[in-house]
Write a structure and sequence with these properties.
The protein is an alpha/beta fold. The protein has five helices and four strands, in the order αβαββαααβ.
């Protein structure tokens, strides 16, 4: 699979976006998914770059989360903003990464992303619960590079 556009079908993308919408109903956090074919950089460094390019560091509470995938490299990263990193334990995302990796190894990419998004939302609501008047600060659409 070489084209990032072919990684998920339209229906699979819609299911991931629906999971983002559902997860964000429980938290003031913002969740994005970014998929690209490959990167010549360290995956975490590239995820951080994409995080900033998408304006995820501009949320009011600094509580954005990016799930970044480099498809051909078989790499993914979960990247949280400063507001999250300041309050969560160091192993905060480990169970989410493990659940996603298990689905990815089985070839269940849509389900891996959905599981990651829903788990991220579940984790975020502990520290950043949904508040009345909360607005969706970032697009829920999957970005591609």
């Amino acid at each position: 699979m070489s084209k990032v556009e072919d990684f998920l079908t339209q229906e699979e993308e819609e299911a991931v976006v629906a999971a983002i919408c559902a997860a964000e109903k429980e938290t003031s956090g913002e969740i994005r998914v970014h998929i690209e074919r490959t990167t010549s950089k360290n995956p975490f460094d590239r995820a951080t770059e994409v995080f900033h390019d998408l304006g995820m560091d501009a949320t009011e509470l600094k509580n954005g989360v990016l799930i970044y995938l480099a498809v051909d490299d078989h790499q993914f990263v979960i990247c949280g903003d400063k507001g999250i990193n300041d309050v969560v334990p160091n192993d905060f995302w480990d169970c989410t990464k493990d659940a996603m990796a298990a689905q990815f190894r089985a070839g269940n990419f849509k389900q891996g992303l959905i599981d990651g998004v829903l788990r991220a939302g579940d984790q975020l609501k502990k520290y950043f619960p949904y508040q009345d008047g909360d607005t969706n600060e970032l697009s829920n659409e999957i970005s591609k590079g």
